[in-house]
Amino acid sequence: MPGPIKRSLSINGHQTSVTLEPVFWDRLQHEAAGQGRSLASLVAEVDTARIAAPEPPNLSSALRVWVVERLLARAGG
To answer: Among 37, 61, 67, 73, which residue carries the largest CB count within 10 Å?
Structure first.
């Protein structure tokens, strides 16, 4: 299994780096493409929700949870 990959993105007007395993990058790319938007736009949406949380997790964790929740919702679980 390949290790985590770090990518730099510009979200909400600032540069940030995010480190995720390839499977999460693949799912995020798939979701963004399915919605007709950029990966940065999708990450920015997750980041906005993350920041609004009472105890915000780091961005990488928030993205992993977002992917898993999306997959579970589709699976009916």
So the answer is: 67
Tokens of 41: 């736009």
* Helix intervals (H) in the chain: 22-34, 39-52, 59-74
Token reading at 51: 């920041």
Q: Map out the domains of the chain as residue ranges.
A: 5-74
Residue identified by tokens 């980041």 is: 47
> Domain 5-74: what homologous superfamily?
protein bp1543 (1.10.3990.20)
Q: Residue 59: count other Cβ atoms within 10 Å of its Cβ.
A: 20
Quote the pTM value.
0.91
Q: Has residue 58 got a pLDDT over 70?
A: yes
